[in-house]
Amino acid sequence: MEKKKNKKVFLKVVIIGDSGVGKTSLIHRYTSTRFLQDFKPTIGAEFSNKEVVINGKTVVAQIWDTAGQERYQSLGISFYRGADCCGIVFDRSDHSSFENLDTWKNAFLKHGAPKEEGTFPFLVIGNKSDLDDGSLVKERDAQQWCADNGNLEYIETSAKDNTSVEEAFTKLIEKGMEREKVNLVELPDRMSQKNKTVNLQRDVAKDVNRKPQKKKCC
Amino acid sequence: MELKNTYYKKRLVNSSKKFFKSESFSSRKSSSDFRTDKYKFGRLGSMTKTNLPPNRINMAKSSNPKTMLSMMTIRYGKTKKQDHVLNDHQLKNTTIRIKNQGRDLASFREPQAKMSENIPESSPFDTAAVLPKGKNRIRTIGAAVGNLNGNRRKQFKKQIILPNTPSKRHTKERNSLSNFFLLDQKANKFLFESQDCRAMQNSNIMKISKIEFQVKGHCLQKKKLGKTMSNISADKLGLTEKMPNVCSKSRLLGEEIKEEERTTRNTSITSCRPSQNLVKEPEISSIQAEVDLEDKKESFLEETGISERILTKTFNVYGSNSHKITGENKSYGCSCGKATDPTLNGCIRAEEWLKYAFNGFSKSFSHKDQKVFQELVDTKVKNELSAEVENDDRIPITVCIENDLTRTFPTEEYYKPPEAKQTLFNVLKAYTLYDTKCGYVQGMNFIAASLLYHCSPDIAFWLLVSLMFDYNLRDNYEAGFTGIEDINAEISRLIAKNCPKLNKLFKETETDLSIFSFEVIMTLFGTAIPLSATGDFYDNFFKEGWNFFAKLIITFLSKLQKPLLKESDPWSIISIIKAHASPASNSNRSAEIPLVPLDWPALIKTASTMK
């Protein structure tokens, strides 16, 4: 058990996309398994942590919810950096949000400046699949876009109906883990190097403290 | 005398060079100068008895025309490139400025004429010629007299209307070396005013009564001229009824000028003249309306020592006839329970806010202002709004606003009915059109909604405008978010000063508070404070500005000190703060964070008594 704890992986997942496509709803659905009825627009950014076990590894995913309005893109510098994977969300019932995928991807690469520009793990998420009135963005078109943009993976979700939300995030986290094959404690730059280790040390320290205590008891 | 003249010239030329070079003309620099702690926060505790926030006081004290200009640039949202086309309301203000030019140009006519030889061609002094000569000149000037107060009008008459008998005072001034500074200052002032003339010269501002077309040089380059001309129709300004002749003339003239522009790129000033001739009649009528105002202005000036020009502007914003904020159109039931009279368009609070808003000049609120608002609301915008509005956002702003309507105070009953949402939409739309450079940014919706809770839409709109421009909120919303940094710096300074324990904690864990503060700054606690308590917040905010904001943050954080001090991880610290700062927050609601019950009205009270 303790060995596993040491292998805890921290991942930063960033969710971007136009305003009102359902980023917050998706994240909320995933982290608290509820659908949000009344909520406010995200201003700046928010984060929430979720601990999951994937392939036998405990992963703490720090999911960053970002503001959708374009003005806030320039803030990305502080929020995108250090991301391990990125989910670009669009609203399937709103074609303009689909057309803006390009812009979002480029903005992320520009502001987040990941090391591997070509291969950085993105996941394209088409949300609001429940609003099917025949005018949704077609899966074919979305797949086509993904193929044209470096063979990205595409998934259709609905935060309202809880369709494939879990799947989408699992995929994201897996992609992030592939990228971070080394079991590094990855925290965003803003919280400095020191903190990167603080968390780990804390866990280790606890473990270390427990061990001798147990021994003493025995 | 010769020597003096050269000295004067030198100074004038220098100052003009300096001025044109200096970036103070561009708002970015000047506004950032402005945003220094001194202006934005004042020194805490340096609040004076006047109850005016520090930035007001500075404004009042400032006699430096440069500062004043930068204030104006901030206020009117000129940017570095100076490349925006003023919107209708701003155009109106320009009218006043140009009217004033008539006066100032005239009063500096003499020294200027002598000096113009030595001054390079591009100098603003050329613009003296803008004033038509002969009969027209006198008549035009006569129209401008309407803007002068009693004393100055007399002086004006002496100097200008009877140009052959220069006043003794004028001559004296020029002869006395000790008055050089004064003259220089005046000349400086003149420079600013001539700026507009310069713009006029460059771009052929056409001026017909109150309709003005400002077509900047860049528009011309982009061949937008024709578009701009046709876009600004007289109907939009609601003037068609009043002056059908003038309006039709204006259109014709618009065509003429278009032709002229094509032929003469570097237009001579003379091309402005035809428009000058048209000015006289409607303006004379407006003189009458403004006569009553002049006495008030004077007493105001004496009281505050504030530049007349700013005053003129402010009065222009708020119209010339003073009213209480009673609404004849519809009664507005304020929801905060502080409405004294149901026919009032806002509660007693909103009235109080208006007193502080617009740098304390907004004691009057007129139908003019309601009209401006109404015009903005009625302006039809299609989906290409984003193209019209000088904003780089891809999504049409209206769509963006609509998206946020249901998400503004989502849990409050007050904003559930569609009518309430529509009103909120109108206010935000009007602001987007009013301030095309900045436009709508998420976060404003909370501020507008908080204001709307207490007053009618038009007042809410003007209060919002005042918050944006006079309380520097605009810096926070503009691309780059330049204002945020300063506020954050101030917050951390105050934390270090007032909450040493928390400061130590934040330092040790290297917690970055900006993740939390950003939202609070952008919404002015809109996500934290329940709608019913926002009135308390704005009561103080209008009084003290960002000073109060910082105090409230400190009060808020010290309230959370207990749970915070148990933590040692920056993320949990931020999570705790965020969970409290936005109880309806998007994240962490599910988390097992025990919430400390916060009584916001009490918190606000504590903060307001804090020193």
UniProtKB/TrEMBL annotation, chain A:
Keywords of this protein's UniProt record, alphabetized? GTP-binding, Lipoprotein, Nucleotide-binding, Prenylation, Protein transport, Transport
Q: Name one GO biological process term.
A: regulation of immune system process
Pfam families documented for this protein = Ras
Transport listed as a keyword:
yes
Q: Which SMART domains match?
A: RAB (SM00175), RAN (SM00176), RAS (SM00173), RHO (SM00174)
One GO molecular-function entry: GTP binding
Q: Name one GO cellular component term.
A: phagocytic vesicle
Q: Which NCBIfam families match?
A: small_GTP (TIGR00231)
Q: Return the similarity comment.
A: Belongs to the small GTPase superfamily. Rab family.
Q: What is this protein called?
A: Ras-related protein Rab-7b
UniProtKB/TrEMBL annotation, chain B:
Q: Which InterPro entries match?
A: Rab-GAP-TBC_dom, Rab-GAP_TBC_sf, Rab_GAP_TBC_domain
What residue range is the signal peptide? none
One protein family per Pfam: RabGAP-TBC
Name all Rab-GAP TBC domain ranges.
Answer: 343-545
Gene Ontology MF term list: GTPase activator activity; small GTPase binding
* Gene3D superfamilies hit by this protein: putative rabgap domain of human tbc1 domain family member 14 like domains, Ypt/Rab-GAP domain of gyp1p, domain 3
- PANTHER family linked: GTPASE ACTIVATING PROTEIN AND CENTROSOME-ASSOCIATED, ISOFORM B (PTHR47219:SF9), RAB GTPASE-ACTIVATING PROTEIN 1-LIKE (PTHR47219)
Name of the featured protein? Rab-GAP TBC domain-containing protein
